[in-house]
Design brief:
The complex is a heterodimer. Chain A is mainly β. Helix content of chain A is 0%, strand content 58%. Chain A has no helices and eleven strands. In chain A, the strands form two sheets. In chain A, strands 2, 4, 5, 9, 10 and 11 form a six-stranded mixed β-sheet that branches. Chain A has a five-stranded antiparallel β-sheet with strand order 1-3-8-7-6, with no helix packed on it. In chain A, strand 7 and strand 8 form a beta hairpin. The relative contact order of chain B is 0.33. Chain B starts with a strand and ends with a strand. Chain B is built from no helices and ten strands. Chain B is mostly beta strands. The chains are: A mainly beta, B mainly beta. Chains A and B meet through strand 4, strand 5, strand 9 and strand 10 of A and strand 4, strand 5, strand 8 and strand 9 of B.
Chain lengths: 114, 114
């Protein structure tokens, strides 16, 4: 079946450095991808999304890159701050009805060292 | 405006007892999702509701799990005869109809079955 997974389960960076979190997906039919951030004790928070007709999208301090050829997704966080410490999940679209049903990866724990 | 709310925030129960978990979606959101998150794992889809359509129950792990959504708003997830393996965080999310994929999550209910 379809699956979304992450290359690195943990990532530790120094404050101010750039972070890159990677994700691989297996369903070539997926056309929509999202990154979520989950802080301890909280629900996932939407960060940024990208559709399959794009290969790059930028937000505030974050950039998502999509490589459909190798089915790879990455989240880049510029000038990482302690508040960025969290688990980051990628999710892919599995169509269902008139709204999307998301399949999530297991997550990457990002730790930012001051 | 208020986000997605869930209650209780924590629930400890004994094996074999029934539990009810509640979700209040964002006002105006017609789509509602339930997920389960086990320790150190990603989110496992359970069920989703879209307006008055029949819910997609394809993710429910057993017939001990059921969910209702009354009046197109509040939803209740019921787990009957709880087992220790049901221990997890149960997350609810909602989204606007037609707004693909941007699901807004509640803080979750942490269920512990002893």
């Amino acid at each position: 079946g379809e699956s979304v997974g992450l290359h690195l389960p943990t990532l530790s960076v120094q404050e101010g450095d750039n972070s890159i979190i990677n994700c691989a997906y297996s369903n070539s039919a997926s056309d929509y991808f999202i990154w979520y951030k989950q802080e301890s004790g909280k629900g996932p928070q939407f960060i940024i999304d990208i559709r399959s007709n794009m290969d790059k999208r930028q937000g505030q301090r974050v950039t998502v890159l999509l490589n459909k050829t190798v089915k790879h997704l990455s989240l880049q966080i510029a000038a990482t701050q302690p508040g960025d410490s969290a688990v980051y999940f990628c999710a892919e679209n599995t169509r269902g009805g008139s709204n999307y049903k998301l399949t999530f990866g297991k997550g990457t724990l990002l730790t930012v060292n001051p | 405006g208020a986000g997605v709310s869930q209650s209780p925030s924590n629930k400890v129960t004994e094996k074999g007892k029934d539990v009810e978990l509640r979700c209040d979606p964002i006002s105006g959101h017609t789509a509602l999702y339930w997920y389960r998150q086990s320790l150190g794992q990603g989110l496992e889809f359970l069920i989703y509701f879209q307006g008055n359509s029949a819910p997609d129950k394809s993710g429910l792990p057993s017939d001990r799990f059921s969910a209702e959504r009354t009046g197109g708003s509040v939803s209740t997830l019921t787990i009957q005869r709880t087992q220790q393996e049901d221990s997890a965080v149960y997350l609810c999310a909602s989204s606007l109809k037609g707004e693909s994929g941007t699901q807004y999550f509640g803080p979750g209910t942490r269920l512990l079955v002893l």
